[in-house]
Design goal:
Layout lengths: L1 E6 L3 H16 L3 E2 L8 E6 L4 H17 L4 E6 H9 L10 E3 L7 H6 L29 E8 L10 H5 L3 E2 L2 H13 L4 E6 L6 E2 L9 H9 L13 E2 H8 L7 E4 L9 H8 L7 E3 L7 H7 L5 H14 L4 E8 L6 H14 L3 E6 L17 H24 L5 E12 L2 E8 L4 E5 L9 E5 L2
Parallel strand pairs: 1-2, 1-3, 3-4, 4-5, 6-8, 8-11, 12-13, 13-14
Antiparallel strand pairs: 6-7, 9-10, 15-16, 15-18, 16-17
Helix pairs in contact: 6-7, 9-11
Length: 447
């Protein structure tokens, strides 16, 4: 039996797609590219924008066209939200639809008659869905998903409805995966989730055992953690424990919220030597009035203070962010405030998104929707600013020696290079030599 998978959306989706791929491999399936003939097609859908919804439907129908006799499985955020809203097309062509807390049942569902299995993710109590990715496609870094769900309910965002409330993965499970990935040769771990800063886990009391015994238990798959904890564990505790895993040389955070960065947390983060000084600190707007309509739970001054703390405790950290333009009610004056604030922070990278109306969110019903023309104009202006800031940050590292994790060899303008990323996530190209190999971490002076 052959199976093909297609992922849409975020790194969390990608992690879960890899986990489902491993389930299929363990059950005897051969994995083939999605555009080839397969017996089973799995599409992990996305619903972050209406365009993502459309792409999800297109890929489901594409699977049916590739093999009309195949079992087509659709899972993830689009089918979850469309099912809950009663808008999932009856003629979509799925044999199985799986919501955002049932992906771990994929093999069972394939064996029990191609049933639909989706529940309301926003009703009742949902436990964290244990899914470990055993087939990371990256050669040098691997993602570990540590939590799911979001309790923030930003007025523009469908994700809390698609993913449900916050659930956190046990410390033991996270560390077991970190030890396994280290044993497989991965040197960098990227911590990911839907709202990573909300990670919180309450461990059971444990008897003390030696560090070596705990490590051996983890490698054998026994769920014991590397340090006994008697109190609730937050994100910083988790990072401190992962840093103790031998073989893991770098820890990178996928994203965090401004209110995660308190003085105490910044101090503790800076004490984790393996932590990369690269922080994706979500902004969305640099205007307080717009932030309030977005239901973002911080002000621009609180955001600025978080950035200042990171820059106080880290040596020129890379600060990246997301900004939405054209949010309902955003006037020219509000956009100028946002633009000026973004410019004053001086980000390394800026990801700009034009507001997309999502049915079922409060923002979709707000008055004063911004025209597509104005959204495009504002997007173009911020993208141009982001390009300038990114170039300035990279230029500021000229003459410095950076620690580079080598990923692969490439040919650029007829010359061969090794390419990789610094701790700050600056891409570095190094002239090719056979003394360097993928997975090496080397110090390289930037010119």
């Amino acid at each position: 039996m052959k199976a093909a998978l297609h992922n849409l959306g975020c790194k969390v989706n990608a992690y879960e797609t890899e986990a489902m791929e491993q389930m299929l491999i363990d059950d005897g399936y051969e994995i083939v590219p999605f555009d080839e003939m397969a017996d089973v097609y799995v599409i992990n859908t996305c619903s972050v924008t209406h365009i993502a919804d459309r792409k999800s439907r297109q890929m489901i129908r594409r699977a049916r066209e590739l093999n009309p006799d195949a079992v087509v499985v659709a899972c993830g955020c689009y089918v979850q939200t469309a099912h809950d809203a009663g808008t999932l097309p009856e003629d979509l062509g799925c044999d199985i639809i799986i919501g955002n807390d049932k992906k771990h049942e994929l093999i069972e569902l394939l064996k029990t008659g191609y049933v639909q299995e989706i529940s309301d993710i926003n009703e009742g109590v949902h436990e964290y869905e244990e899914m470990a990715s055993f087939t990371p496609h990256e050669h040098t870094r691997a993602f570990i998903k540590v939590q799911d769900g979001c309790n923030q309910f930003c007025s523009y965002c469908i994700i809390p409805y698609a993913r449900g409330r916050v659930r956190s993965r046990s410390l033991d499970s996270v560390l077991a995966e970190a030890h396994r990935l280290a044993a497989e040769g991965f040197k960098e771990i990227v911590i990911t989730g839907i709202h990573v800063g909300s990670y919180s886990y309450s461990p059971a009391a444990r008897d003390h055992v030696s560090t070596e015994d705990r490590k051996n238990d983890l490698l054998r798959g026994h769920m014991t953690h590397s340090q006994p904890h008697s109190e609730d564990i937050d994100l910083i505790d988790l990072l401190e424990d992962i840093a103790e895993v031998d073989g893991i040389e770098r820890i990178r955070l996928s994203s965090i919220e401004p209110r995660t960065i308190t003085e105490e947390n910044a101090k503790r983060l800076a004490a984790i030597e393996k932590l990369c000084p690269h922080f994706h600190l979500s902004l969305q707007s640099g205007c307080d009035e717009t932030l309030k309509r977005m239901n973002r739970k911080y002000t621009t001054e609180e955001y600025r203070r978080a950035v200042e703390l990171l820059r106080d405790y880290f040596d020129d950290p890379a600060i990246t962010t997301d900004v939405i333009v054209g949010f309902p009610g955003e006037t020219d004056e509000e956009f100028e405030k946002s633009y000026d604030f973004v410019k004053s922070i001086g980000f390394y990278e800026l990801h700009v998104f034009k507001y997309s109306k999502r049915s079922g969110t409060r923002a979709a019903k707000m008055p004063d929707q911004v025209s597509a023309q104005n959204k495009q104009k504002r997007s173009d202006a911020l993208i141009a600013l982001g390009d300038k800031m990114s170039e300035a940050y990279r230029s500021a590292h000229s003459g410095r020696t950076l620690s580079v994790l080598i990923e692969e060899s490439v040919t650029l303008d007829g010359a061969d290079y090794w390419t990789g990323f610094s701790k700050e996530y600056i891409r570095v190209n190094i002239p090719y030599t056979d003394t360097i190999h993928a997975g090496d971490i080397i110090d390289y002076s930037i010119v």
